[in-house]
Amino acid sequence: MIKKSHFSVSKILLVCMIVLSFVEIKAQETSKTIAKDLKWSERMALSVIKRAPQAWQVDSNEKPKWDYKLGLLMTSFEKLYQKTNNPVYGNYIKTYGETVINPSGEIMNYKLEDYNIDYVNPGKFLFELYKRTNDNRYLIAMQTLRRQLETHPRTNSGGFWHKKIYPYQMWLDGLYMGTPFYVRYTVEFDGGKDLDDVAKQFEQIHQHTLDQKTGLLFHAWDESRQMPWANKETGTSPNFWSRSIGWYMMALVDVLDYMPKEHPKRKELIQYLNDISKAVAKYQDKSGLWYQVTDAGNKEGNYLEASGSEMFIYAFAKGVNNGYLPKEYKKAAVKGFDALTKKLVTVDADGEIHITQVCASAGLGGNPYRDGSFEYYIKEKIKTDNSHGLGPFILAALELEK
Hints:
Elements lengths: L1 H30 L8 H12 L16 H17 L2 H14 L25 H8 L2 H16 L17 E3 H18 L5 H15 L10 E3 L19 H14 L10 H17 L23 H16 L6 H17 E3 L5 E3 L2 E2 L14 H6 L2 E2 L7 H11 L1
Helix pairs in contact: 2-14, 3-4, 3-14, 5-6, 7-8, 7-9, 9-10, 9-11, 11-12, 11-14
């Protein structure tokens, strides 16, 4: 009898433990629910963390890497952390930093001699991380990236090549990859000695990629005019890609954070921002969003693209908030963000949000060869939750939440 009773108690205890475990699991699942009354910036950040507990896992990466897209995402998380002081965001950044930079300050998968301007972009999130942690690895990493710019190959007119494998080429993307890090480094560590050189990068792009007819900027310029995609007279690529113009506009508003008010080049950069904003605003679709190929409207195959739209929204909103742009651009930004959340964002039952219609990648030249044609841009893969669409979403949301 005692044995039977003991067996029954054991069974009851086991059942209780299973039930309690189930309740605990359900409670944990419930705790992962993302509240719909949170600001859009936090809803996106928490959704990213939910899908990718380690930042390097974004885009389903199989192993950690130093990457310009993850650098963009960490930059957006840094802005969010500064606003909310929520350690969840701060720790997410710190864990990524410790993963991709070893205690000696060596950067994972980084080779200075590749002279790839994309590698400089993640350096931006290291400034605040270094201040918070006082961990010397981040200072050493920033110094390494600055050394790259010291010897990075340039066009004959002084612009940074996009990559060593793309000689004599400047791409709009490269302005965002290099100049925001460059300007902050020169202001905080070098007494601002390179501010003229920072401005020169924008001057070169403005001079060589501006289309007088539309006011838009072509995706790239080949000084040598050797690339098959390059116009034999001007050296420009043949089309306007919204995300590339978005990179350029984000670079402008971010560089202006560190360009001193008394610096003679500051007015020039603000004028560039006003010029490109005026042109981009003309091509905002009635929906509030922008097309993949900026000026082609609803031509067959063209589509309303998330990342470029987000970058325009961010630049417009920040431009107004900081007094660089007239107030009407804030209305365009609000209209764009409303369209983004209504047309391109999907929400799961647990509150997790997804951003759709993100161009996965686009470039020029390379192998397989990319010719910069309209057909090329519309045929590149379109993805959901691609990292190009995550960071700019958070940045745009933060500016509109101010």
